[in-house]
Specification:
With 312 residues, this protein is mainly α. The protein has helices at 2-24, 31-37, 56-72, 76-85, 88-105, 111-118, 121-131, 134-137, 143-153, 172-181, 189-201, 214-225, 227-233, 237-251, 253-262, 271-280, 288-297.
Length: 312
């Protein structure tokens, strides 16, 4: 009977903690949010150093900050909807990739505070399945929220991902996908996979297995993260991505942009969504070929007929 009472109390406190988070949180005065937003990212591989022939290294250094940058721009309502949309695979992978990258790169973690300020106890408990309960405990400042969180997630321990240490070159496609998934303009798996195609295809990652092409790598991500999309386009996705890469290398960014635009349909994206990704954050120039193609096509076209990219 006592355990039932504790469960009911925790549930009631969870509801109260969500209402409190949504009503009291103000990103404009939150020091952690403002600290993160003071260091924006233009590309996911910002900060490439001399002698780094592949961009994996810069992406790995940036990865914790990129995830935090996406979270810093979410309202409590957007953060709640995002967590609700995560699969078990996504949240477990995100936790492992973030913790390892922060540890390896010496990054000062801010993600727990960003999440704790925006989310109720129940959703923090869901994230604890990927990050572990201890990841959040010190950053939950509201006593009611902390009690509810500990009642639901207190026994959850993160599966220590230390086997991933030093292996980040193998995880670059996953880091790319998770970056776009958590981007400021939150994307569903299909949108995040579309955005991932460009940096994967254009070689920001080292070819860690000889003969593995971009289309094959993206196909693996689709199978993991969006089985319905795989059922719809799995047989053609590798060819689409490899065609985009080949056209980019042979004919340049404008013609590659036309090919990229033709991929919108199979990935269930319309021009308005593509514009939103670019204008409101989450693109990190991944759709620059398409933007360039649309811009060149609209050079002598009335602005009203050119679509959302022209307003970026």
């Amino acid at each position: 009977m006592q355990s039932v009472y504790k469960a009911l109390l925790a549930a009631a406190l969870t509801v109260a903690s969500f209402c409190a988070s949504a009503e009291s949180f103000d990103a404009s005065t939150d020091p952690t949010t403002q600290e993160v937003l003071a260091h924006p990212f233009h590309k996911i591989w910002d900060g490439v150093r001399p002698g780094e022939h592949y961009y994996n290294y810069a992406l790995h250094r940036n990865f914790p900050g990129l995830i935090e940058y996406g979270w810093a721009q979410k309202t409590p309502e957007q953060a709640a909807a995002f967590v609700d949309s995560l699969s078990e695979h996504e949240l477990t992978e995100l936790g492992a990739l973030y913790v390892v990258a922060a540890y390896e790169t010496g990054h000062t973690p801010r993600l727990a505070r960003l999440m704790a300020d925006r989310l109720d106890a129940h959703r923090l408990s869901k994230l604890a399945r990927g990050f572990g309960a201890d990841f959040f405990t010190a950053d939950i400042k509201d006593a009611q929220k902390l009690y509810a969180f500990q009642a639901e997630a207190g026994g959850i321990v993160m599966a220590t991902p230390w086997g991933m240490l030093g292996q980040f070159l193998y995880n670059t496609p996953q880091e790319i996908y998770q970056t776009f998934r958590a981007a400021p303009y939150s994307m569903n798996p299909t949108g995040a996979l579309f955005e991932s195609a460009s940096p994967i295809g254009l070689g920001i990652w080292v070819g860690w297995t000889a003969g593995t092409d971009a289309g094959t790598v993206l196909a693996g991500l689709i199978q993991q993260n969006d089985p319905d999309l795989w059922d719809a386009i799995g047989g053609t996705v590798a060819q689409m991505v490899d065609n985009f890469v080949n056209v980019y290398n042979l004919d340049g960014i404008v013609k590659a942009g036309q090919v990229q635009q033709q991929m919108n349909g199979p990935f269930e994206l319309n021009q308005t969504q593509m514009g939103d990704m670019s204008n409101f954050g989450g693109d990190y120039t991944a759709a620059q070929p398409q933007q360039t193609f649309v811009g060149s096509s609209c050079a002598h076209t009335p602005r009203s007929a050119c679509g959302p990219y022209q307003q970026h």
